[in-house]
User: What shape does this take?
Amino acid sequence: AQSVTQPDIHITVSEGASLELRCNYSYGATPYLFWYVQSPGQGLQLLLKYFSGDTLVQGIKGFEAEFKRSQSSFNLRKPSVHWSDAAEYFCAVGARGNTGKLIFGQGTTLQVKP
Amino acid sequence: NAGVTQTPKFRVLKTGQSMTLLCAQDMNHEYMYWYRQDPGMGLRLIHYSVGEGTTAKGEVPDGYNVSRLKKQNFLLGLESAAPSQTSVYFCASSYSKVVSEAFFGQGTRLTVV
Assistant: This one.
């Protein structure tokens, strides 16, 4: 079955430090992969997506993610975290079939220390 | 540029009451979805629609019904609310039958007491 795992429920980093959020997926073919961010009390906003091609994808707000097929991973990175990056981050994979359904991971809450 | 709009934003229901959540999108998207978000469980798909007049069950459909009478609207109904339906509900839409970016509403926080 398709699934997404985000191993880290909470992560705390200092402002200015680098960030890596982990995402592992289970999928039998080439996956469509997404990272969304949810600020407190808000809806989900797309940070970046991978459909095909270059395995390093750039997103908004200075985020990037790398697709590694051999490790079934799609980790999100940012070289220098800002206090405004504190939020919940969701990794998702597109479900099989032409329906646009998404399967989400459990989410990772990022706290940024001043 | 409204995007996806959900109504209401907050609601408190008593057990056994019914209600309807409304989702409206102005992007002419074919595909619409209802998810629920619970702590530690991410978002789980309740029902979805691949076009006007169509609906289908998602991962957690029990206790919910949906309708898509107009392309721009997707309604989620709770006929007899239960405390287990306390959650944050998100509507989303997308424009392609191949997996594409989904656009999300702001969410509806529902508490069933």
